TrEMBL record:
GO biological process assignments: protein transport
GO MF entries: transmembrane transporter activity
Keywords attached to this entry: Cell membrane, Membrane, Protein transport, Transmembrane, Transmembrane helix, Transport
A Pfam family hit: ExbD
Alphabetical list of InterPro entries matching this protein: ExbD (IPR003400)
Transmembrane segments: 12-31
Protein's UniProt name: Biopolymer transporter ExbD
One GO cellular component term: plasma membrane
Upper classification of the organism: Bacteria, Pseudomonadati, Pseudomonadota, Alphaproteobacteria, Rhodobacterales
Chief place of localization: membrane
Length: 154
């Protein structure tokens, strides 16, 4: 009969509980995070002293050179005569996104909000024509995204 004590094992850290916690945190952040598509191009928004926060599902971009962007669809800067043809693919993608939104939500009760991120150097005439085209395509409300002016209350 062997009455000796069994050999002691060295200290081994059990990493399994920590891995489980990290994995659960990863799942929590993946579920709770909202993934936003990248901006098609950089825009410097105009400044404003006061305003309300915009909550929009769809965001349209207008560059300083007059280029239009929505998600992966981009239009090249064009002359006023060629704007309609150049903007057609972008506005078609926007209309498709609006139709997808309306398939899930009741657009008659609450039309889809649209945010317009226009560069402060964008031509005003171009912006006015774009607003008219957006109104014709069914967007009753377009929120112009601005940056707070220096010294303005947040």
């Amino acid at each position: 009969m062997d009455l000796r004590e069994p050999p002691r094992r060295g200290f081994e850290a059990n990493l399994l509980p920590m891995i489980n916690v990290v994995f659960l945190l990863l799942i929590f952040f993946l579920i709770s995070a909202r993934l936003a598509p990248p901006e098609p191009f950089a825009v410097a928004p105009p400044e404003a002293r006061a305003g309300a926060r915009a909550a929009a599902e769809l965001t349209l971009y207008l560059g300083a050179d007059g280029a239009l962007g929505f998600r992966e669809s981009l239009s090249a800067p064009a002359t006023p005569a060629q704007e309609a043809a150049a903007d057609a693919p972008v506005l078609a993608a926007l209309a498709a996104a609006r139709a997808a939104y309306c398939a899930e939500e009741d657009c008659a009760a609450a039309p889809p909000p649209l945010a317009l991120r226009a560069d402060q150097g964008a031509p005003v005439v171009r912006l006015a024509r774009l607003m008219r085209a957006l109104g014709a395509s069914g967007f009753a409300r377009v929120d112009l995204i601005t940056a707070p002016a220096p010294g303005a209350a947040p």
